[in-house]
Amino acid sequence: MLAGNWKMNKTPSEAQLFANTLVNALAGFNSFDIYIAPVFVALDRVREVVSSSNIKLAAQNMYYEDSGAFTGEVAPKMLKELKVEAVILGHSERRKIFGESDELINKKVKKALAEGLTPIFCIGETLEERQKGLTFCVLEKQIREGLNGINAEDVKKVVIAYEPVWAIGTGVVATPQQAQEAHEFVRELLSKMYGIDIAEAVTILYGGSVTPENFFGLFIKPDIDGALVGGASLKESFVELAKIMAKIIG
Ligand code: PGA
Fold this sequence. Notes:
TIM Barrel; globular; 250 residues; 45% helix; binds 2-phosphoglycolic acid; 15% strand; alpha/beta
C-alpha cells in the first residue's frame, strides 16, 4: 500500500487539481493499493476526480460517535457517504498537538472497523524514547492499547503505520535496518497476540521522511509492506514512489 497523507495542505481547488494529475500519472498501477488523504473539506471534490480511478480516498481523522454535540468533529458515516475507504488514526501529530490518548485512538479504531473503514493506525517512538532504549516498550504499549478488544478477524483489516516521530517531516529517515527491526517487532507482537497467520496478514507501513531517494531500500525489507508519505505525497514525487513500488513488486 502507498498512502499519501496531505496533512493541512492544499485548498479544495488545489487538492482537486493535484488529484487530477495523480489520476493520470498513476493509471495502470494496479498491483498495490494507492490512497490519498486530503483535508476533510477537499474530500468531496477529490472524490469526484478519483471516483473511477485506481486511487482510493482516505481521511486524516474521525470521531467515534455517529452524530451529536461534538463541535468540530466528523463521523465515520459522513466519510463513508463521500466514498472514503480508509482513515488515518493516532497520527503522532494528533497524539502530540491534539493530545490524543491510546484509549481514544482505540475507540476510533474500533469504530472505523465497525463502520467498514480501514484504519491506518499510527504508532512510533520519539527521539528521546529511542535514545533511552524504550522503542519496543513504546510500540508495545501503543499496539496493545490501540488494538485492545479487537479480535483476530478484525485486526487483519487494520493497517499499522510505524512512524518514528523523529523521522516525521524532519528529513531524517529511519535506516532500512531500523525500520525493519521495528516492523519485525510489531509483527512478532501481533503473532503473540493473534497467531502467526494473522500477523502475516496485517499490512505494516513505514512512514517518516520517505522520498524516492530512500524508498527502495526500505520497501525491499521483508516486513515493510508500503509507506505512509507526508511531504513527498504533495508533489510528483508521489508518482516516483509508486514507480519504485511497482518495480519491486514486479
Ligand atoms: P513525512 O510525514 O513523510 O512528511 O515525514 C509522514 C507522515 O506524517 O505520515
